[in-house]
């Protein structure tokens, strides 16, 4: 089985790639940064997801070996800002990486999965998608993933293909140390610690499995209790 994982060089994406490789998958990893995973069945490729021409070329190369059985969009970027300080360039970058890249890739891989009558797509969202002060642009781009996933899931539900979103709360990744988010500190979940990338990877691996064939169009939170207060 072959999987495409974006954002595979660090954090959640690297954990997902490693988990799938351990499960016997062949993994194509796309990231702007150099490969962080080494494995005989791992094929890294430098891809700037904000560049449509580069993404299209990478898709052509990917399909040279046949359509992937799974697509996991874990690439992400976070820029923070409050009203009065919001930057258009920040919003556009997050929209391109999160929503537009997911759409461009899904537009190629989902029809192929549909034709094969099998396939799995998981988009990595965020608990922030419901809205959070100082992160409106990030929240909007992540909320878009839920709408995209539910729409796509409805189109392919009868064809053996599932599309879901996994939305972690604050996760222990290099993104937490990014100076760009200094104005908006992460909120520690009620369990008293950050979510671990391996915990996200384990859920994603399950959603890609045959056993998860009845789960589609869902936004599944790994929140450490953050969603409990009502």
Element layout with pairings:
Layout: E1 2-6, H1 11-22, E2 26-31, E3 42-46, H2 52-63, E4 70-73, H3 88-116, E5 119-124, H4 136-156, E6 161-168, H5 197-207, E7 219-222
Parallel strand pairs: 1-2, 1-4, 2-3, 4-5, 5-6, 6-7
Helix pairs in contact: 1-5, 2-3, 3-4
Keywords:
seven-stranded parallel sheet; 230 residues; 17% strand; alpha/beta
Describe this structure in words.
The relative contact order is 0.15. This protein has 230 residues and is α/β, with parallel strands linked by helices. Strands 3-2-1-4-5-6-7 form a 7-stranded parallel sheet, with helices on both faces. It has 5 helices and 7 strands, in the order E-H-E-E-H-E-H-E-H-E-H-E.
Instruction: Based on Cα principal axes, name the global outline.
Output: globular
Compute the CA-based radius of gyration: 17 Å
Estimate what percentage of residues fall within beta strands.
15-25%
Total count of helical runs of at least 4 residues: 5
Strand-pairing-aware structural class: alpha/beta
Number of strands: 7
> Could you list the spans in which at least 5 consecutive residues all have pLDDT below 50?
none
The helix content is 25-40%
Mean pLDDT: 93
Distance between the termini: 41 Å
User: Could you describe the largest sheet, including whether it forms a barrel?
Assistant: 7 strands, parallel
Return the string of H and E elements: EHEEHEHEHEHE
Strand order of the largest sheet: 3-2-1-4-5-6-7
